[in-house]
Amino acid sequence: MDKYGYRFSFGPWNIHEGADPFGPPVRPTWDFEVKLSVYKELGFDAVQFHDDDAVPDLNDLSPAQIGQQARAVRQKLADQGLVAEFVAPRLWEHPKTIDGAYTSNNPQERSYAIDRSKKAADIARELGTDLMVLWLAREGTYMREAKDAGRAAHQLLEAINTLLEYDPDLRIAIEPKPNEPMDLAYIPTMGHALALGFQTQDPGRVGVLMESAHSILAGLDPVDEISFAMAFGKLWGVHLNDQNGLKFDQDRSFGSVDLRRAFNQVRVLDENRYWEVGMVGLDVKAVRTQPNELATKHLRNSLHMFLKLLQLARSLDREAVDELIVARDYEELDWLILSHLMG
Ligand code: GLO
Ligand code: MG
Q: pTM value?
């Protein structure tokens, strides 16, 4: 399979048991090793980690034990010819993160969040990656009066500065999302994430990760979110997927809802030579109805969709597009793109 220099990744959570808020798991849990064994055959190169995907129960372990377990995982990756893309501190499941992590109203809970993130940075180093992704899951409110958005911005800034200081080699990519699990999140869009990054003490080490469904949930176009971040050299990761309207975060297979929107995401990534800066992460979930033994097809479909759309992006008649732009004949341009996509 020719991947044109692109590298692809997903996280262990993308092979999942199908539970939703209204029903229990419908598929058995796959052992981590079993998950690792399917990456290569599906065409993937790298693994995305939550800190505890790599080191389960890390809160109960000493730094030495954490290091030892992380090194064992690195060996398992190497055995499969894989690498780690990033590590993300899981700051949304522990009782101490109920009211948020870095923006909790309780100072002890805020310091738990910082300590946990430092451990995630240690794990990233052991796994051989310098990238941390911050999905700020619970940094927001259900009740607006419960917190102060200005104070929250400073708390987030302080947390990121602390991590940058803690590990001088670490790069941080902020993954914005407007809602879910919170009613309203403090870092809902690329603009917010970039603004925060530029205010830190070392802006060169803070970038963003764009997830298609999150942009769509914010009422924005993922294509422009990609372009905006790339205009400043800040797009260090993507979570390509799809989303059918404004509802719960669906993590549908890439391109399965809106082909043209997916085509344009691939087109702008490629026009900006994304393969030189980051991996193509696919944050997709198999629908609940999928039988266990067929529960990786969403990953296969998403990767193949990217490659097919890449061919379409590269075979687009650019001269014809430019002529139509000069003539301001955007209806003809519309038809040219649709005809190109329909083949
Ligand atoms: C959820 C997020 C989540 C993150 C992952 C890495 O909506 O997309 O899947 O990407 O936890 O931080
Ligand atoms: Mg994501």
A: 0.98
